[in-house]
Amino acid sequence: MIEIDNVVFDYPGLRALDGVSCTLPAGRVTALVGPNGAGKTTLMRCIAGLERPLAGRIRVDGIDVALAPRKVHARLGFLYDFYGHYEDLTVAQALRYRVAAQGVPKAERADKVALAIHRLGLGQRAGQPAATLSRGWRQKAAIALAIVHDPQVVMLDEPASGLDPEARGDLSALILDLNRAGKTLLVSSHILAELADYSSHVLVLRDGHAAPLRPVLDDEAAPGGETLVEVRLASPLADWAAVLSALPAPPRLIAAEPTRATLAAPPDAAGRAALLAGLIGQGLAVSAFAPARADLAAAYQAALRPTPSPATPPATDSGEARP
């Protein structure tokens, strides 16, 4: 868990973070998005203890970053936006140096290095100095260095930078693998489609301010204990409401198009299975039935819209504003 409490950070002549507060849930992947200059990298550097805020407090897994930065570093892996390599060291040498510097017990170091090399597909590059690597391979090596000590919290700032489409797919798989292992991840990127593949929550920054943290998986936010599911059809349906009303336990219809709909389904697996069976029993050609995911791009754009100012209350006959 990462707890951020009213954090303020200034550069000369610029307030980069202005009272940012949020709690990033443990064991989840939070997408950090916002326009250029919104404060994303600054926030990550503050979380990592590389910058000290003017005000506020940050805790990583309950550890105050300002009071015990070394303890935080042992639990944290951080891929910077511009990662500096030891150019003369081979990939394997740099990884061995990193695990030693992080205090990993000697008996565990070789296995952790081998796992990082395997996870990033660096086997054929392990013996090459960083100076000889292409941009994409340098990025893979940097990601390996960020996770080689098996940190509980991982922050990745623009991790897909310099990666080709195949490598980006591998990166998404790696992030999901780390998340399944119980890691807490904060990932900053401008590629919203890829963030949507693995993110459970989204935090939007703009001009140093944070919009409320919101889930990407709609089922986490469904009211009344319901689960939002998306149903896709192989052939169009003219009237979803008529079909749903014929079911023994009609679900709420949240949104509908001819070939897909979002439904508020029962929270239990048996209830959802019964709903699916009922839809098929009504003759629908169901091609997909799964938890609905919010549109990350839509969430991002919504968070960027300015909040409308409260309307000025009408004046009374005396000229004073009504309460």
From TrEMBL:
UniProt keywords, alphabetically: ATP-binding, Nucleotide-binding, Transport
Q: Where is the ABC transporter domain?
A: 2-232
Q: Which family does it belong to?
A: Belongs to the ABC transporter superfamily.
Origin: domain of life: Bacteria
Write one Gene Ontology MF term.
ATP hydrolysis activity
Question: Which portions of the sequence form the region Disordered?
Answer: 304-323
Say if the entry is tagged with keyword Transport: yes
* Official protein name in the record: ABC-2 type transport system ATP-binding protein
